[in-house]
Amino acid sequence: MNGSPAGVVVVGAGLGGIRVAESLRSNDYRGPITLIGAEAHPPYDRPPLSKSVLLGKDDRVDLKPADYFSDSSVTLRIGERVCEISPADHTVTVQRLDDEAIRETIAYESLVLATGLVPRALPGTDGVAGVHVLRTIDDALALRAEMGQASRAVVVGAGFIGCEVAASMIRSGLAVTLIEPAPSPLAAALGTGIGDLITRMHVANGVDVRTGVGVEEVVSDGAKVTGVRLADGTEVAADIVVVGIGSTPVTDYLDGSGIELAPRESGGGIACDQHGQTSVPDVYALGDVANWRTEEGGTRRVEHWTHTVEQATVVAHRIAQTDAMIPAAPPYFWSDQYDLKIQVLGRPEATDDLHLVDDDGTKFLAYYSRDGVLTGVVGAGKVGAVMKTRPKLLTPTPIAELLG
Ligand SMILES: Cc1cc2nc3c(=O)[nH]c(=O)nc-3n(C[C@H](O)[C@H](O)[C@H](O)COP(=O)(O)OP(=O)(O)OC[C@H]3O[C@@H](n4cnc5c(N)ncnc54)[C@H](O)[C@@H]3O)c2cc1C
Q1: Cα separation values, 369 from 308, 329, 373, Å
Q2: 3-state SS assignment for residue 266
Q3: What is the dotted CATH code of the domain comprising 339-403?
Q4: Under CATH, which number does the domain 8-118+248-320 receive?
Q5: Which residues line ligand 1 (CB under 6 A)?
Q6: For residue 1, how far is its CA from the centre of ligand 1 (angstroms)?
Q7: Whose C-alpha lies nearest to ligand 1, atom 35?
Q8: How many CB atoms lie within 10 A of CB 47?
Q9: Alpha-carbon separation of residue 203 from 8, 170, 171, 178 (angstroms)
Q10: Where in the chain are the domains?
């Protein structure tokens, strides 16, 4: 043991990590807080990475000013990775990223795990220059630097991040092809009805959208990417390939800890109750890596900003043993593409009934229902109309009430 303080130790200095530290302090938690982050940067915000950072409008997107940590007595240890957890001893082991031989053991009273995700790679692309994923600010700055030298880009995967990257790249003057094996972008999350409107938006902005076809192979000249070959045999030339095919929860450091993981078929990640408590006493998890039990008795792992912030508040209350009311709110996330804010409120599912109630060819508003009850709202450029439905998503509301 290296005599470091106990109190709350937070693994992962991203959004969830900093928000739990902040919320503990605002709940009058006076004990030591240690925030450990594997990146070389203080906590920063990820949503701008695919938007303003790629567009060259932002270089830094820090979540806190530099003096926050000393002012709030939060010890920030960056460039360090937690490699082992021993719940029996109430300790974590950290290793320095610049010298993995340097290790230190730190004691905790409460431990919070907020280690996020790592993007999935396309097989056979390891070491091929010009192939990118996007999760960190270093990823974004490296991609942006290459965009300056490139003219043709392929984006593989039309989920939210793939769509945002395609929008930022075409706005930066590149020719962009967006490839998605599903029938439309965002189809798994929102269904093909909305997916087709997303296709329309990208096509209107000049993106070559290829749906219903996957990537067979990334083609290179041995060192640098030159394009992709699709499953239908066509080849698309590219100087840059961005891969946005989903991510995997970061849980490798839990091996041997006894902390339970959720089954892969229910989303994987760290299994938690509805307050973020893991299977081990005094250990909590939140954010993209955490799979929380829901009030309805199911489980859910969510990869969105607002959800992470809400979970950080719940965990901080739990640790600080304060039972302040956390106001109920329907799940919410957003995505910025071109000049439109796309917002999703509630829990719409691809298989729900879709009711497109407003569509001027660019902006649109749609409700989702299941068994005649409103489940969610999706809008593009309809901020006021989306937010107006919040109260209706807190109690079962017949869809007829909104359509009438
Ligand atoms: C490009 C991009 C755009 C996005 N846009 C939107 C958006 O428009 N709207 C929206 O709702 N959401 C968006 N999101 C999602 C949102 O940013 C995430 O939901 C949020 O960042 C999750 O926070 P987190 O703390 O769980 O994980 P993260 O923010 O990923 O933080 C986890 C941190 O833990 C560190 N870590 C991992 N392992 C260890 C270890 N063993 N030891 C120490 N540290 C470790 C990681 O290095 C990382 O810094 C976007 C995400 C990305 C990547």
Answers
A1: 26, 18, 5
A2: helix
A3: 3.30.390.30
A4: 3.50.50.60
A5: 11-17, 36-39, 46-47, 49-50, 81-82, 114-117, 134-135, 161, 250, 253, 287-289, 303-306, 308, 333-335
A6: 30
A7: 12
A8: 19
A9: 49, 11, 13, 10
A10: 8-118+248-320, 121-245, 339-403
Query: Which residue's alpha carbon is nearest to atom 5 within ligand 1?
Result: 47
- pLDDT tens across the length of the chain (404 residues): 555 568 999 999 999 999 999 999 999 999 999 999 999 999 999 999 999 999 999 999 999 999 999 999 999 999 999 999 999 999 999 999 999 888 999 999 999 999 999 999 999 898 899 999 999 999 999 999 999 999 999 999 999 999 999 999 999 999 999 999 999 999 999 999 999 999 999 999 999 999 999 999 999 998 899 999 999 999 999 999 999 999 999 999 999 999 999 999 999 999 999 999 999 999 999 999 999 998 778 899 999 999 999 999 999 999 998 876 677 789 999 999 999 999 999 999 999 999 999 999 999 999 999 999 999 999 999 999 999 999 999 999 999 999 97
In this structure, what token pair is assigned to residue 136?
């960190």
Choose the CATH number for 121-245 among 3.40.640.10, 3.30.70.1450, 3.50.50.60, 3.30.470.20: 3.50.50.60
Q: Give me ligand 1 centre to Cα 145, in Å.
A: 22
- 121-245 and 339-403: same fold? no
Tokens at residue 260, please?
């339970």
Q: Which of 49, 288, 335 to mutate to test the pocket of ligand 1 (most atoms within 8 A of CB)?
A: 288
Identify which of 11, 20, 46 to mutate to test ligand 1's pocket (most ligand atoms within 8 A of the CB): 46
User: In 137-273, which ranges are E strands?
Assistant: 152-156, 175-180, 208-211, 215-220, 225-230, 235-237, 240-243, 247-249, 270-272
